[in-house]
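agent> call fold_tool(seq_1)
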Amino acid sequence: MWFNPIMIWLLKSPLHFFVSKNMMLINFTGRKSGNQYTIPVNYLQDGDTLYTTSWRERTWWRNLRDGKVVSLRLRGENVEATPEVTESDERVAALLSTYFQLAPNMARYFEVGLDPEGQPLPDDISTAAKTRIIVQFKTQ
């Protein structure tokens, strides 16, 4: 994507604070190529766990399936973390429920409606889970 190099530069710069509240960099090694990659992603944090999502058809997250420690650029600091990729529809749906409880405003980006109490609609979550994966990062 055209904006990735800009976001990478910004997140590595002293100006990271403009975007690092909800964006971070993931540095990982390609499983087939052995090349180093750096990608910017949105995240949510709950304690020592960071959550990010991706469309299933994207491929970058497949490099994290092995659970090897990766480097994150998180709020201007380099942090090591262990990724866990979740792909099953049922488990993704459960994690999306947690995700939307942490940030209900994110539901609209996933086309998930909220009930009158502000809780995500289960049928919408199930639909969203069919097109997404979730990666959880446990920080070291």
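agent> call fold_tool(seq_2)
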Amino acid sequence: MVKRGPNTPAGKANSSQNALKHGLRSDAPVIPGFEDHGDWDRHRADILAAIAPEGALETAHATRIAKLIWRLDGVPRWETAMMTHSLDAVGDDLVPAFRYGKALGIKQTEQEKLDAIVRLADRRQLPSSEDMEKIMRYEGHLHRQLHQTIHELEALQARRKGDRPSPLARLDVMQSPV
């Protein structure tokens, strides 16, 4: 049997941070170098104050809600970073085409080169369809988790207060804007 992955403690510690590339699949609420721990602490404190959990289980649910909201707020930043990266690579992507044209004896003016760059940049104003699908899938996943956790917390709080518990099943119907 072939063992894959890091073998040393340092390698294992390093690979444990792989999910921090964009933060969408990370368990850590704050991405070092991109987000501020102070902002996270304030966000978490505000959510906990608004929910007013009692006990460890309600606090765990409230903390999870804070994390999910924090992660949902990060999705647009990731989308923007993807678009910026795509736009930054326009010049590099055109260099081989310009060299190929030059090798074939095709002469291009600087204006034609600029026009080609503008056309390619215009096509990259949005992330690729694959990246957009990934963004929408993560955002939808986080949204469903958030609403499920809120529902579970509401049921816990209702039981604690002696209220009639929330129904086990809830149907949320969302309609597209007209």
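agent> summarizing second result for user.
The chain has one domain: 33-161. The mean pLDDT is 77.
agent> awaiting next instruction.
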